[in-house]
Each structure stands twice: as structure tokens, then as C-alpha cells.
């Protein structure tokens, strides 16, 4: 990005040098003006016409913008800005360089001052210096092959745009900075295109595009000509705009001329059209002066008069991961009120995520059905979690070669003490809490009875929820579901006979079958939504701060295939700070999917969350797991939502080190240590703790546990004794945690967002801002690969694209017990973490 800034600075310096070298103007002509653009101005946001009006506005574009405009001016030369002609305009953000946008225009001009064939090519580059300020550079080349004077004129303009708030934007344009000059060899007469300076203020009294009032002024540097201008847009309903555009021409020693335009604009989401008629006086004549018509095609979705015919949306769960999955939940909530949406077809294969995410997806489908939408599910194969989601559908289709797994819930883990003993390695781990079972995998050959009992209680809770979903969704008696679970695996024909599905069909047959069922063949389209065209400059909304993976200090990291995600304290702290300082953010939702990690990192973040909660509502949403340190930092939130199947709790800590002295002795390796102070090598992995040192470590851990209890007690308005009774390392399902007062309500991310909007007095359509902002390398984006050094939650997408390799590496990962804990112990000797395989 620094290199990009240097490039832009060089271009700007070249422009200023050309400005300094330009000679004085001899006569003013308007050949470098754009085709007349009524209703549009330099303070507007990104539109195709910004290419020739103010290049700085292009940074607001979210995708391709294409426009075609034709403007006609009656009579001879006129004193107003804008030429007769036809123009094609194209703009879009630069791929992989988010702060940059580019644009281009080709305008065929029909000026009375030049030969019949003339045109102008414009190229723009814009850069967003800050979310509220952008600059742009525009290069224009005028060609008139039939003229020796007007041909091959080059000029440069500089634009800027400032978004003060959602109510006010300011645009500025420094046009024709080189002030190019030409001399006619035949007549020895010459001309110069004068520099001009333009500024415009655009006011949105309602905070969005429904009402716009703009006032601007353009000044000619040499001629001292003035062009004051006012614009008004009223949008009484989505897709319909009514505009008025008034301009004065104040030229020295000439009569005052005026021009008033009346316009209408209609939008149909990705296509729009507008027309303007302008009347007024010009050099003594009064009447119809000009007209302009334009068509816009965009890959952005504009507010529309008609949103299109009814359709079925196809949702592929296997293509979703990380923040993409959470955005799907937001889209499903939006579909409840979408008049175009007749229903959805869920392709429930390749699901990533655990039982918590499965709860959210199933609940979203249940809500769609309650809103009157049709819901269908199809799978080539159904895993247990995928089938759990599919039971929310009114009909379930299974491929002829497919099957359904319904074998119950398993919760496992490895115990490696005996293996470590053979290697001469001893894990010296000390825990606080009888149920804090994570160290057991290192220090025991089997789980303790308390650990076994709490995990069995969690399994029982998840199993009961699964069976209830199958019984309710498929209208089967509860005892019958128990018998089906004992059969475990159902090929397609057996699944149909058992009532687990409604039909056996290929993917091609499903849509035809649904059409027959509905009574008409509806358009089926992907739910991949086009970006919304912004209707407000800085709309207030809710920040969603994603906390995913093991807590540690430093930056967040993600390694695909083996599902190693590091939630870096430095990254998360910056995200919380940015969300707190951003005036657009009126409320914050913490989305936590973390087993915990560094107790220090959890405590630092918990303090920051508590501070943020004093300024803005902070609501928490739990994903698959929010345990130990993951629960620690959630405790200060205003309200905590959890999915019923989330794994949470585990209020407890442990710490210590791994002693390799036995392995060194077995290898015949001797280590000599020189030190001053009997405990100088306290944390050395080459010797065990002494009894005194073990007592010291225990006291340190006890202090950390007491701090954990204090934070939870304060955040949950409970006594320390009550928290301790629910703590000691106990784990709970989300549903159990609500009963234990550790969480407030069952619900998913969108329930938390809805509550955050309510507390901040925001509408249901207010935007979501996702933090930390996912950054990836340029090379990685070009090749379609994740950034292994900081790609954020989206890095797993590459793994999803190679499922066979992913399964192989995940299986290998299961044979590396405690790998993540071992890695965390290298950076922190006090951990608040739950370490076990997720329920399956």
C-alpha cells in the first residue's frame, strides 16, 4: 500500500509541475468540458458519470458501473458548462487493491466550436485516503482529426471528496490544471483552455438519499466567469426519483443567463434510466435549451420500483465458511421479508462448523417457513449435522447413490501420558478446578470420573435435541427415532422406507419435482447477493467483531486444512478500538467461536469489552464453542446469546510446562546450566519443578482463577460463590448455560444483531460492519489461495475447495493430541482453554 501511495504522489507531482509551467490564457473555450450531465454533480457518490465530473467519487463503487448518456443543446454557442454529445462511462474498484478505483469514458462531442468529428477520452484513478476522504486524478485526451488546432489536446484534472457525515458531503474539482494552449499556424491566432475551480456541498437532511439538496459554484480562473448551481432530488419511493437542476451563467459584461431542468429517474435494481428537459435563457433567447437521457447498468443493486419475479434461491452450505457463513445467516433473515423469495433449496453437503452453527442454520430455515416461504433440502449424502439442518425443510431429497448417517453423538479425546512416559517426557501441568480436564490428556491414561460425567451430560443434551428435531421435522414418534439411531446408516432406499426423506432424486430432478409441487416452474438462482448501492454516505449500524480460534497475543493467524486458527489479542484489541471510535457503529456484537487460550489475553480483552460496554451496547453471540477464555472475555457483555448446542463454560485455568529431562537422559544428552538464583531456570523444559516451585505456580494459577471468578461475577451480576459453583472447569451446552445463568438467551447471531439494533434504536435494515477487516495478500487473491500469515477467517475456503486433502489432514491432526495446547504453552504458561474434540 505504501508503494501505491508513492505512485499516486508521483502522479500528483507531475500534475502540479504541469500547472506551474502553463502559460497565461488567451481565450476561453469549453472543449474539455464533459457532455452535459444534468442532475449529477461533483459531490455525488459513485455513479458512472463521476468519471467526467469528479474522479474522487469513484472509490465508493462496489462493483462495475456502466452508463450511456446523450445530451442535446439547441441553438449556437451557449454560456453554460456541458457539451452536446454522447458518452459511454465505465467505472469499478480495482481488483485486489481495495482503496483504488478506476474509470474511463469515451465521449463523442458535437460542439459548434470544432469540426464535426471530435471526441474526448478520459481515464481516471481514485484513491481512498481514509473512509471519509478520497482523491482522484483524471487524464483527458481530446481528438479532432479534421482540425490542426483542436486535435490531440491533453489535460489533467484533480478531484477530492469529503464525507463529513451521513448528512453532508463536499466535492471539489480543479479542472484543466495544465491550461493547454494552441496556435493556429494559418491565422497565427491561438487559444488556451483556462483552469477552473469547482466546489459543491450536498446536504441529505434525512441522512439518506430520499432527499438531496446540493449547492455549488464553478469559477473560471482567467475569465472570472461564475456558474452558481443548485440541485434537488426527491425520492418518494424506492426506484423513483424526481429532480430539479438550476444553473446561472454570470459572465462579465454580459446579461445574466439561467437554465432550469426537470428530471425523472427510474431504477430496476441493476438497470436504470433518467431523462432531463432544460429551459431558460441563453444570450437573449428563452425557451427549451437542451435535453438529456441516460441509461445505467450496474453490478450493484439499486433501490428498485420492481424487484423482479418470484424465485427460489439455491443455497450451497459447502461453499460457506467463517464470515461467509455468518453473512449467509444475515441473508436468510433478510429473505423473510423479500417479496421475490418464494422459497429456498438448501444443498446440505460439505457443511463446515459444529453443532452450534447447525442450530443457527436450522433455526433460520424454521423462521423462513414461519414467514410463509417454502423450504426444500437436497443432499448427495447427509452427515448427521447436515441431516439435523435438513429436518427443518418441508421436503428432503436424497441422491440415488446417497445415504444418511444417524448414529448418535460422540465426544472423544486422546490420552498420551503412557506414550510420553516411554519417551521420558513428563507434563508438569497444574489445574485449578476439579472439572478442568484439559491437562488430563497429558497427565493421565484415562479421564477422571468428573470429566467423564460432564462430557456425558453434554452428549446427552445434544443427542436429545437431535432426536427431537428428527421426530418433529419428520413427524415420527420419539421411540421410533431411537430405533432409527441404532440402525445408524441408511442408503437412499432405506432412508425413504424409514420416512427420513420424501423422495429419491438427482440434483437435476429436484427442481422439476419442486416445480410440480408448487404448481409452476420458478426461476432458481444463487443467493450470492450483489452488493447494495449505498443510499447513505455513513449510515449508522452494528459492528460484528469476530473472535475465532485460540486466544494468544500478537496478530490473528489462520492455517487451512488442519483448522488452526489463532485469535490474536493485538488484532482483536485494534478491532474493538476501531469499533468503539467509529461514529457509524452504534452497537457491537461479539461473535465468539473460541475454546480460549492465553488467560492474560482473555483478561485484557475482557477489560476492553467492559470499557466498550459503558459507551455502546455490546451483545455477545456464541458459535460452536465459547469456553474458558472464550467465555471469560464474553462475561462483561450487556447480553449473551448462545446456540442451544454451543459448548461453553469451562471456567477454570491451568498452566505449567513440559519436562524433557527424561528424554535427554534416554538419548544420553547432558545439559549444563550456569545461573545465579535458585529459580532462575524455573520455566526450563529440561528439568522438573521443585516442590517449592510447584507451590509457587499453584499460587499464581489460583490468583488467575480468582480473577476469572471476579470478572464473571461482575459481568453476570452473580456472587463469586455462585460462579465458583458453576465453574471449577465445568462445561455446559448453551441450553444448560442459560439455565445456569451463565448466558441470557438461546439464539444465534441474527438474534443478537436484532437486539443490538433495538438497543441502539436502529432500523432492521441498518448495515453490519465486520471486524477485524479480513486482509489477504495480493498474490494469494490472484491465485485464489489464503494468506497463511493473516488471512483471517476466510482462509479455510481453500480447504473447502479440496475436501479430500482436507479430510486427510484433519485425520492426521486428530493423531496429534494437544497440538494446539502445546503450541500455546510455548507463549503462555497460564491458559484458560478447553482442549477436546468437538462433539460429532
Structure notes:
- The strands form seven sheets. A 14-stranded antiparallel beta barrel has the order 1-2-3-4-5-6-7-10-11-12-13-14-15-16. Strands 26, 30, 32, 33, 34, 36, 37 and 38 form an eight-stranded mixed sheet that branches.
- By secondary structure, the protein is of the alpha/beta class.
- 29% of the residues lie in helices and 32% in strands.
- Helix 13 packs parallel to helix 16 (691-716).
- The chain has three domains: 2-19 and 27-184 and 192-298, Outer membrane protein transport protein (OMPP1/FadL/TodX) (Porin, Beta Barrel); 311-526, 2-enoyl-CoA Hydratase, Chain A, domain 1; 541-669 and 681-833, 2-enoyl-CoA Hydratase, Chain A, domain 1 (Alpha-Beta Complex), CATH 3.90.226.
Helical content band: 25-40%
Largest sheet: 14 strands, antiparallel, barrel
**Alpha carbon gap, first and last residue:** 44 Å
- Under the CATH scheme, which architecture of the largest domain would be assigned? Beta Barrel
Question: Ranges with pLDDT <50 over ≥5 residues?
Answer: 1-5, 7-29, 776-817
CATH class of the largest domain: Mainly Beta
Number of beta strands = 39
* Tally of alpha and pi helices: 23
CATH topology of the largest domain: Porin
Strand order of the largest sheet: 1-2-3-4-5-6-7-10-11-12-13-14-15-16
The geometry reads as elongated
Overall SS class: alpha/beta
Count of the domains: 3
Which percent band covers the strand fraction? 25-35%
Overall mean pLDDT: 85
Please identify which CATH superfamily of the largest domain we are dealing with. Outer membrane protein transport protein (OMPP1/FadL/TodX)
- Estimated radius of gyration: 33 Å
Amino acid at each position: 500500500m505504501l508503494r501505491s501511495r508513492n505512485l499516486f504522489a508521483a502522479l500528483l507531482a507531475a500534475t502540479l509541475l504541469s500547472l506551474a509551467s502553463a502559460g497565461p490564457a488567451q481565450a476561453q473555450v469549453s472543449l474539455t468540458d464533459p457532455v452535459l450531465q444534468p442532475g449529477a454533480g461533483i459531490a455525488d457518490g459513485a455513479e458512472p458519470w463521476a468519471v467526467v465530473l469528479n474522479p474522487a467519487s469513484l472509490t465508493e463503487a462496489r462493483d462495475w458501473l456502466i452508463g450511456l448518456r446523450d445530451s442535446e443543446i439547441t441553438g449556437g454557442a451557449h454560456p453554460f458548462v456541458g457539451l452536446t454529445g454522447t458518452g459511454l462511462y465505465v467505472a469499478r474498484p480495482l481488483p485486489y487493491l481495495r482503496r483504488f478505483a478506476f474509470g474511463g469514458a469515451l465521449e463523442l462531442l458535437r460542439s459548434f466550436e470544432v469540426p464535426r468529428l471530435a471526441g474526448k477520452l478520459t481515464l481516471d484513478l481514485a484513491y481512498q485516503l481514509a473512509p471519509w476522504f478520497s482523491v482522484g486524478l483524471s487524464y483527458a485526451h481530446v481528438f479532432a482529426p479534421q482540425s490542426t488546432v483542436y486535435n490531440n489536446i491533453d489535460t489533467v484534472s484533480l478531484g477530492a471528496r469529503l464525507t463529513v457525515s451521513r448528512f453532508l458531503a463536499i466535492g471539489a474539482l480543479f479542472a484543466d490544471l495544465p491550461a493547454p494552449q494552441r496556435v493556429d499556424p494559418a491565422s497565427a491566432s491561438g487559444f488556451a483552455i483556462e483552469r477552473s475551480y469547482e466546489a459543491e456541498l450536498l446536504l441529505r437532511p434525512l441522512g439518506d438519499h430520499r432527499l438531496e439538496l446540493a449547492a455549488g459554484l464553478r469559477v473560471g480562473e482567467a475569465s472570472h466567469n461564475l456558474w452558481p448551481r443548485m440541485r434537488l432530488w426527491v425520492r418518494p419511493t424506492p426506484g423513483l426519483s424526481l429532480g430539479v437542476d438550476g444553473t446561472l451563467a454570470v459572465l462579465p459584461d454580459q446579461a445574466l443567463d439561467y437554465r432550469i431542468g426537470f428530471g425523472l429517474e427510474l431504477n430496476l435494481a441493476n438497470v436504470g434510466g433518467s431523462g432531463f428537459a432544460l429551459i431558460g435563457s441563453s444570450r437573449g433567447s428563452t425557451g427549451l435549451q437542451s435535453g438529456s437521457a441516460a441509461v445505467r447498468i450496474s453490478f450493484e443493486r439499486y433501490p428498485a420500483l420492481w424487484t423482479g419475479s418470484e424465485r427460489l434461491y439455491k443455497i450451497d452450505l459447502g461453499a460457506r465458511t467463517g464470515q461467509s457463513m455468518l453473512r449467509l445467516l444475515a441473508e436468510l433473515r433478510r429473505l423473510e421479508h423479500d417479496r421475490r423469495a418464494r422459497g429456498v433449496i438448501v444443498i446440505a453437503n460439505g457443511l463446515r462448523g459444529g453443532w452450534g452453527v447447525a442450530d443457527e442454520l436450522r433455526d433460520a430455515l424454521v423462521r423462513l417457513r414461519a414467514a410463509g416461504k417454502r423450504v426444500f433440502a437436497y443432499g448427495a449424502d447427509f452427515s448427521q449435522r447436515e441431516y439435523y439442518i435438513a429436518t427443518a425443510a418441508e421436503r428432503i431429497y436424497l441422491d440415488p447413490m446417497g445415504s444418511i448417517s444417524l448414529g448418535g453423538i460422540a465426544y472423544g479425546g486422546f490420552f498420551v501420558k503412557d506414550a510420553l512416559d516411554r519417551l521420558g517426557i513428563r507434563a508438569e501441568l497444574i489445574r485449578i478446578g476439579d472439572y478442568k480436564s484439559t491437562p488430563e490428556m497429558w497427565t493421565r491414561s484415562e479421564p477422571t470420573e468428573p470429566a467423564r460425567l460432564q462430557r456425558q451430560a453434554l452428549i446427552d443434551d445434544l443427542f436429545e435435541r437431535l432426536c427431537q428435531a428428527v421426530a418433529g421435522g419428520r413427524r415420527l414418534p420419539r421411540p421410533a427415532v431411537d430405533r432409527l439411531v441404532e440402525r445408524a446408516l441408511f442408503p437412499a432406499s432405506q432412508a425413504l422406507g424409514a420416512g427420513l426423506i420424501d423422495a429419491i432424486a438427482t440434483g437435476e430432478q429436484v427442481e422439476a419435482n419442486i416445480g410440480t409441487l408448487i404448481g409452476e416452474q420458478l426461476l432458481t438462482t444463487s443467493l450470492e447477493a450483489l452488493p447494495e448501492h449505498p443510499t447513505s454516505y455513513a449510515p449508522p449500524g452494528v459492528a460484528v467483531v469476530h473472535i475465532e480460534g485460540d486466544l494468544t497475543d500478537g496478530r490473528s493467524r489462520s492455517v487451512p486444512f488442519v483448522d488452526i486458527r489463532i485469535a490474536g489479542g493485538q488484532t482483536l484489541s485494534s478491532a474493538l478500538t476501531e469499533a468503539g471510535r467509529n461514529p457509524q457503529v452504534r452497537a457491537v456484537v461479539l461473535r465468539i467461536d473460541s475454546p480460549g487460550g492465553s488467560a492474560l489475553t482473555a483478561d485484557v480483552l475482557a477489560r476492553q469489552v467492559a470499557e466498550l460496554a459503558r459507551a455502546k451496547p455490546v451483545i455477545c453471540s456464541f458459535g460452536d464453542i465459547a469456553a474458558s477464555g472464550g467465555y471469560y472475555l464474553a462475561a462483561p457483555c450487556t447480553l449473551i446469546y448462545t446456540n442451544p448446542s454451543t459448548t461453553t463454560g469451562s471456567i477454570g485455568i491451568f498452566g505449567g510446562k513440559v519436562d524433557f529431562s527424561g528424554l535427554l537422559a534416554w538419548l544420553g544428552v547432558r545439559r549444563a546450566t550456569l545461573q545465579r538464583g535458585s529459580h532462575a531456570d524455573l520455566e526450563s523444559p529440561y528439568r522438573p519443578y521443585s516442590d517449592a516451585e510447584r507451590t509457587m505456580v499453584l499460587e499464581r494459577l489460583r490468583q488467575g482463577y480468582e480473577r476469572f471468578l471476579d470478572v464473571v461475577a461482575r459481568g453476570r451480576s452473580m456472587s463469586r460463590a455462585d460462579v465458583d459453583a458453576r465453574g471449577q472447569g465445568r462445561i455446559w451446552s448453551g441450553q444448560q448455560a442459560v439455565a445456569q445463568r451463565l448466558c441470557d438467551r438461546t439464539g444465534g447471531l441474527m438474534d443478537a444483531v436484532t437486539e443490538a439494533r433495538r438497543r441502539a434504536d436502529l432500523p432492521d435494515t441498518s448495515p453490519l460492519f465486520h471486524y477485524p477487516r479480513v486482509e489477504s495478500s495480493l498474490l494469494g487473491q490472484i491465485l485464489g489461495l489464503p494468506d497463511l500469515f493473516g488471512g483471517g477467517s476466510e482462509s479455510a475456503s481453500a480447504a473447502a475447495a479440496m475436501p479430500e486433502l482436507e479430510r486427510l489432514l484433519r485425520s492426521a491432526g486428530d493423531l496429534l493430541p494437544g497440538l494446539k495446547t502445546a503450541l500455546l504453552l510455548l507463549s503462555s504458561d497460564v491458559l484458560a482453554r478447553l482442549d477436546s474434540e468437538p462433539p460429532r
